[in-house]
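Following up on my earlier thread - several people asked me to post the actual chain instead of describing it. Fair enough. Here it is, all 100 residues.
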Amino acid sequence: MNKDEILKIARTQKLDEGRKYINDFALGAVGAFAFIAISLMIVYKNIINESYGDLLSLLIGMVGAFCYGKFVLTSKKHWFILFVIFLTGACAVFIELPGL
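Reply from S.P.:
Thanks for posting it. Predicted structure:
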């Protein structure tokens, strides 16, 4: 393929790889920061012997929100199924395990 054919295909698909890369990087950076921050808070609450079930349910809920976002973007059923599983898990941890 020559350069003109590649550009024509990219225009018809309306792909902007730079924007996709930036969005993926930003999502990964925010997710990593949130995961590290909540993990540190869970460790801290465990050290001082307080309940950390609310933070654990927040972490599980964040993963569920990520899965729902992927479902909205891709419309694939397995992302929605994962979203429901994680949402149910977050509710179960928050309601059933307050002494965790």
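The two ends are 59 Å apart (CA to CA). That should answer part of your original question.
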